[in-house]
Every structure is written in structure tokens, then in C-alpha cells.
Specification:
The complex is a heterodimer of chains A (113) and B (114).
Chain A: E1 4-7, E2 10-13, E3 19-25, E4 31-37, E5 43-51, E6 54-57, E7 64-66, E8 76-78, E9 87-94, E10 103-104, E11 108-112
Parallel strand pairs in A: 2-11
Antiparallel strand pairs in A: 1-3, 3-8, 4-5, 4-9, 5-6, 7-8, 9-10, 9-11
Chain B: E1 4-6, E2 11-14, E3 19-25, E4 32-38, E5 45-51, E6 54-58, E7 61-66, E8 71-76, E9 85-92, E10 103-104, E11 108-113
Parallel strand pairs in B: 2-11
Antiparallel strand pairs in B: 1-3, 3-8, 4-5, 4-9, 6-7, 7-8, 9-10, 9-11
The chains are: A mainly beta (113), B mainly beta (114).
Chain lengths: 113, 114
């Protein structure tokens, strides 16, 4: 089955700790995205990548980092600099040329201990 | 003022009702308009996609875009309990550095009761 997988489903972070969220897709999409969803605020773009080894900051990139070493994978690291990391994190992908139609993974819920 | 405004609801309707969901926006450069459906604790799924102004119909769903009023709508006919979800509008300018950058509304929580 083609699709986007995110792991883990739930993640707990201690103060001062960096954590990495996984996102993998087998849709052969070139573009991948990370969003954060907070109650009552919709989705906000953290980072996006249109091609391997290249990525751009979104609206709320501070405290986050990404890498794009493989077309299929786009991991997100939530660093200790992100002071309010509790949220639902969503990964998405799309074809180049159809980047308005994005397909989402099931999400990772990050909680701070 | 947010670029995209969406009434968060919640909206509760009886089964079989016609549902109207709406978003307004301020950025006149938006050209692509999407509606996503999100079930609880799941990722959003694309429902409707429209370019520029006009109507688009897909089964029980109709999307309308009025660029002159900066207003988009999603109508659900003969609503079903399985339609209970959060509905998110999203918009994009398309092209250039904005390519693929979606701006989302806050989402409207819909409950259809039997």
C-alpha cells in the first residue's frame, strides 16, 4: 500500500532533550512538509523540502531542524530550544507540479514530561 | 487579523441536513483552494481542490469559491454520521517561492447526529 508513515504515534520529551520524529513515504513524491497543529489554530508550516538535500523554513521553524538525505524520508528534530513543543505533528508529501494537493500521514503527538 | 478565518463551531446537525462550512481570507493572491477532512487523532485527508473561482461538485460535496468576496464554502448534502469530523480549509498562492505553501483555517468541528 502506498502512503505516508509517521512514528512514533506518541512521544514524550523531557526538559532539555532533543527528540526526532520520523516520516517516510513510498508515494514517490518529491516534496515533503512538516506541520504543527495546536487546538484552535489549524496547521502551521514548520519546514518543507522540494528535493533531496534541500529544504526551506516555514512560518514557525525556530526550535526545529530537518534533514532530507533520501527522497522517501524527512525526519524532524524538536530541539531543546523549542520551549512549547506539545502539539500534534503532521508530515505531508506531494508531487512537484501538484504541490497544492498534499497527502498527510497519521501524525505524532508530542508531550512534555 | 489572520490570513484565513474559519468559524471553529462546533456545528451540530441532524442526519440528512445540508451543511455549510465557510472560510474568508484576506490575501488576494490565493489561487488554489482546498478542503480537508480530519477525523479525531488522524491526519487530514484531501476532500476537494479548486483552482480560482467557481463551483466543483463531487458526490454529496460541493465547493464554491468567490474570489471577489474572498469567500469559500463547502456544502455537504444528505449529511451522515460518518461526516462527523473537523473540516479544514486551506489556500495557496501557487508559483514562485510560495509554491506548495498552504495556509490553513482553524478548522470547523462538525457532528452529525442520527
Amino acid at each position: 500500500d502506498g502512503g505516508i508513515t509517521q512514528s512514533p504515534k506518541y512521544l514524550f520529551r523531557k526538559e532539555g532533550q532533543n527528540v526526532t520524529l520520523s516520516c517516510e513515504q513510498n508515494l514517490n513524491h518529491d516534496a515533503m512538509y512538516w506541520y504543527r497543529q495546536d487546538p484552535g489554530q489549524g496547521l502551521r508550516l514548520i519546514y518543507y523540502s522540494q528535493i533531496v538535500n534541500d529544504f526551506q523554513k516555514g512560518d514557525i521553524a525556530e526550535g526545529y531542524s530537518v534533514s532530507r538525505e533520501k527522497k522517501e524520508s524527512f525526519p524532524l528534530t524538536v530541539t531543546s530550544a523549542q520551549k512549547n513543543p506539545t502539539a500534534f505533528y503532521l508530515c505531508a508529501s506531494s508531487r512537484l507540479g501538484s504541490q497544492e494537493t498534499q497527502y498527510f500521514g497519521p501524525g505524532t503527538r508530542l508531550l512534555v514530561l | 487579523q489572520k490570513e484565513v478565518e474559519q468559524d471553529p463551531g462546533p456545528l451540530s446537525v441532524p442526519e440528512g441536513a445540508i451543511v455549510s462550512l465557510n472560510c474568508t481570507y484576506s490575501n488576494s493572491a490565493f489561487q488554489y483552494f482546498m478542503w480537508y477532512r480530519q477525523y479525531s487523532r488522524k491526519g487530514p485527508e484531501l476532500l476537494m481542490y479548486t483552482y480560482s473561482s467557481g463551483n466543483k461538485e463531487d458526490g454529496r460535496f460541493t465547493a464554491q469559491v468567490d474570489k471577489s468576496s474572498k469567500y469559500i464554502s463547502l456544502f455537504i448534502r444528505d449529511s451522515q454520521p460518518s461526516d462527523s469530523a473537523t473540516y479544514l480549509c486551506a489556500m495557496s498562492e501557487g508559483g514562485g517561492t510560495s509554491y506548495g505553501k498552504l495556509t490553513f483555517g482553524q478548522g470547523t468541528i462538525l457532528t452529525v447526529h442520527p
